[in-house]
Amino acid sequence: MKAQVNGTSRDLAEGTSVAAVVTLVGAPEKGVAVALDGAVVPRALWDRTIVPDGGVVEVLTAVQGG
Amino acid sequence: MDDPLIIAGREFRSRLITGTGGAANLSVLERALVASGTELTTVAMRRVDAAGQTGVLELLRRLGIEVLPNTAGCRTSAEAVLTAQLAREALETNWVKLEVVHDEETLLPDPVELLDAAERLVDDGFVVLPYTNDDPVLALKLQDIGCATVMPLGSPIGTGLGIRNPHNIELITSRASVPVVLDAGIGTASDAALAMELGCSAVLLATAVTRAQDPERMGAAMRCAVEGGRLARLAGRIPQRFWAQASSPGL
Questions:
Q1: C-alpha to C-alpha distance for B106 and B56, rounded to whole angstroms
Q2: Among all residues of chain B, which has the CA nearest to that of A33?
Q3: pLDDT in tens, A19-53
């Protein structure tokens, strides 16, 4: 199946969790948040939230700015 | 003299809020932040990329500086609300510097989207510090819906044009009951001092320090300017006169 991860189309195995996507993009341990289809997925739910086919995942962190 | 800045019940000894954007590297940023004496500093939220993290969070934590996430880059209320919610999740703070800009050329706030986003974030339990136009009416509306501060611009972000409409800033400070933070447009120390003399409670700046030829020294200059301007405001300046008035006794 395919999903959009940080703006890039990715082939993911069926049943891939949000936690797995966070690892996939190489996110740091702390200071990271995830949105799935425009809604925040709390960290506590990363393991059991499955990315659907065609899902849009954004993995964000803090950078210098403002 | 004990004169803390109080935002949403939290006390700060420094009245200078800084940004982290524009610094050549983290080492330059660190020296500038330390010299500025800031206790509250903004960061932006961006996609994690292959280059990995920037290390700015670790730097701020090591320096004991509170992190203030912003919604820079957002053009609509919906984008800003989601970005704020992501920042709350990532950084474990319900404080947000709310930015909703209209276009890239001016980076001016979009007042309609800004007010809508502010209302939604206040309802969602955020401490909202909105970056706003130097519009006294909009500032009051932001205050009335529950924003913790109002942060009018002196001039567009990154221009260094200073405070283009001092009278508007004074109108805002004369009526606001929440702290007024002059945000954006500061070019040099005298601009920061003027903001404080006009009655602002604090100044927020980034570019003026991070892109100065010597960021560390400019950070120190801004600290002194904010302190000096605040003291002058509290001291009460003399009225301006048309004719001279001798300061020495007559012969």
A1: 27
A2: B90
A3: 999 998 888 878 899 999 999 999 999 999 999 99
Interface contact A66-B86, CB threshold 8 A = no
CATH number of the domain at A43, please. Answer: 3.10.20.30
Burial A9-19 (b: 16+ CB within 10 A, else e): ebebeeebbbb
Q: Which residue of A has its CA nearest to B42?
A: A66
pLDDT tens readout for residues B7-28:
999 999 999 999 998 888 899 9
Which residues from chain B sit within 8 angstroms of residue A19, using beta carbons?
none
pTM of the model: 0.91
Domain of A34 in residue numbering reads as: 2-61
In a domain, A37, yes or no: yes
Structure token digits, residue B124: 């969602």
Query: Considering only CB atoms, which residues of chain A are within 8 Å of chain B?
Result: 6-7, 25-28, 30-35, 38-40, 42-43, 58-66
